[in-house]
Design a protein that fits this description.
Radius of gyration: 15 Å
Number of domains: 1
Largest sheet: none
Number of helices: 4
Distance between the termini: 22 Å
Oligomer: single chain
């Protein structure tokens, strides 16, 4: 399997973990908190698997994973919890995406 597909899976697990942790309300709801921890452990396991293929550098894998996770978490927060970013925050997302694109071509 292509390592970027594995990184995408890891990022989706990370987004799920962030949504679960937010839903746990500071770990007051232990079920959501435990789910969040388990999902982030799975995300790091997949990220490690992607890097261990030797077909993707750690810097590229981690930056890609982080960027997808940040964007997905912002979108998930907006859609599921009504959280809003100011326009400068969305501009930051664009800058981040451009930075990751540049990193992957370096």
């Amino acid at each position: 399997m292509h390592p970027l597909i594995i990184v995408l899976g890891a990022a989706l697990l990370d987004i799920g973990a962030n949504m679960a942790i937010n839903r746990s309300v500071g770990f007051r709801d232990k079920g959501w908190g435990v789910l969040g921890i388990l999902l982030v452990l799975c995300a790091f396991t997949l990220l490690s698997e992607a890097v261990s293929t030797g077909k993707i550098d750690l810097a590229v894998a981690y930056a890609t994973w982080g960027a997808i996770g940040i964007l997905g978490t912002a979108l998930g927060g907006l859609l599921l919890f009504g959280e809003r970013l100011r326009p400068v925050g969305w501009l930051g997302m664009v800058v981040m995406a451009v930075a990751v694109a540049l990193l992957t071509t370096a």
